[in-house]
Amino acid sequence: MEIERKFLTDPDRLPFRPEDYPCRQIEQGYLCTAPVVRIRRDNDSWFLTYKSKGLMVREEYNLPLTEEAYEHLKKKVDGRIISKKRYVIPIENGLNIELDIFEGDLAPLVLSEIEFPDEESAVNYQAPEWLGEDVTSSSLYHNSTLSQM
Fold it and tell me: What angle do CA 136, 138, 143 make, to 5 degrees?
């Protein structure tokens, strides 16, 4: 189960430098968007992911792929391949912000996600103002939607 909130973030308002934190290079594409079936390269790891319907709470299953399987499936992607840099920034209560800086034709989009251990924590989280507009309830900011725009 994935429980997360998503924010449209202005990089000029960040109280830290993303470059001071670990970065992963991510490339992903969607074989299907209803239901969501995604392939992803995350640095030197490859995955096939299924995500159920939902906005803040969704089921998510990840299966490992080989690089060869990923490259084979990449040719079958529907829509654009998304490239982004992901910075993981620790915050209070053991939570992390996953700051995604999109590249290519989705630049200069920046989204922040925070994954929570339970729904109550997610609902009660008071986001700092610099995190930006809460777009959790908007499917427009799902990567699967962005891949089709």
Answer: 85
Segment holding 95, helix H or strand E: none
Does the structure show a pLDDT above 80 at 55? no
CB-based contact 90:96 (threshold 8 Å): yes
d(CA 60, CA 35): 11
Q: Which domain holds residue 67?
A: 2-146
Instruction: Give the residue numbers annotated as catalytic, written as ranges.
Output: 30
pLDDT computed for residue 57 by the predictor: 86
Number of domains in the chain: 1
Q: What is the CATH number of the domain that holds 50?
A: 2.40.320.10
Residue whose structure tokens are 């490992």? 64
